[in-house]
């Protein structure tokens, strides 16, 4: 009886959030260890399907760093990172494109579609969803060439909007085409933020491998529950290189019309549901 009462209490707690976010578009960046642990992969798919059945409109933008690294190692192709971004040679670009679109995306789609005919895969190349230009990394104040890495300069969200209107769950790979026909690897955090802005999303959620934004890592491991854009910008120079693209994505989103952006620990089962449907929430919320 106690278990039944606790379940009923959890459902009632979710009611105002179900009312508030019914019909809301939520862009979820999915990556990190949550993509390599089988149990976490299944719980993520369940969360996405739950959101869809609860009346939200989830969009998944995925990375695939661990899978790309494994395939590059298998082929003997060297891969390095500069300022948190993968240096992408033409040889590496072929692998990135193949793994993201042909392997990782298909795996996510398959997990979601165990629950019904929901997920549809897209590359940023499809229907000119993402148009990008070559991006340089900034190291010690100077630009550094990092190969076929792109900065999104235009988003055509019509295909994603059509899928959402049809009750589908778009699953988007961070590959983009340039106006010159060049293919670019786009950081998935950046792609998720650009798509959230273009869709006028109600939330951007970035799943990562830490609990959220720490107040003063590594000395202080308290997670910041909520932070404004100006304060986050002030903290940016102190962040680790891995967190920079994630927090830049949140900044981009909230400064361009997305009401709130979140960084959550993707290692926690059902972290998406905890954030959206409970009073406490988890992780760090970024607001304008």
From TrEMBL:
<protein>
    <recommendedName>
        <fullName>Acetylglutamate kinase</fullName>
        <ecNumber>2.7.2.8</ecNumber>
    </recommendedName>
</protein>
<feature type="binding site">
    <location>
        <position position="185"/>
    </location>
    <ligand>
        <name>substrate</name>
    </ligand>
</feature>
<keyword id="KW-0055">Arginine biosynthesis</keyword>
<feature type="site" description="Transition state stabilizer">
    <location>
        <position position="246"/>
    </location>
</feature>
<dbReference type="GO" id="GO:0003991">
    <property type="term" value="F:acetylglutamate kinase activity"/>
</dbReference>
<dbReference type="InterPro" id="IPR004662">
    <property type="entry name" value="AcgluKinase_fam"/>
</dbReference>
<keyword id="KW-0067">ATP-binding</keyword>
<dbReference type="Pfam" id="PF00696">
    <property type="entry name" value="AA_kinase"/>
</dbReference>
<feature type="binding site">
    <location>
        <begin position="64"/>
        <end position="65"/>
    </location>
    <ligand>
        <name>substrate</name>
    </ligand>
</feature>
<feature type="domain" description="Aspartate/glutamate/uridylate kinase">
    <location>
        <begin position="25"/>
        <end position="265"/>
    </location>
</feature>
<comment type="similarity">
    <text>Belongs to the acetylglutamate kinase family. ArgB subfamily.</text>
</comment>
<keyword id="KW-0963">Cytoplasm</keyword>
<dbReference type="InterPro" id="IPR041727">
    <property type="entry name" value="NAGK-C"/>
</dbReference>
<feature type="binding site">
    <location>
        <position position="86"/>
    </location>
    <ligand>
        <name>substrate</name>
    </ligand>
</feature>
<dbReference type="InterPro" id="IPR037528">
    <property type="entry name" value="ArgB"/>
</dbReference>
<comment type="pathway">
    <text>Amino-acid biosynthesis; L-arginine biosynthesis; N(2)-acetyl-L-ornithine from L-glutamate: step 2/4.</text>
</comment>
<feature type="site" description="Transition state stabilizer">
    <location>
        <position position="29"/>
    </location>
</feature>
<dbReference type="InterPro" id="IPR001048">
    <property type="entry name" value="Asp/Glu/Uridylate_kinase"/>
</dbReference>
<keyword id="KW-0808">Transferase</keyword>
<comment type="function">
    <text>Catalyzes the ATP-dependent phosphorylation of N-acetyl-L-glutamate.</text>
</comment>
<keyword id="KW-0547">Nucleotide-binding</keyword>
<keyword id="KW-0028">Amino-acid biosynthesis</keyword>
<keyword id="KW-0418">Kinase</keyword>
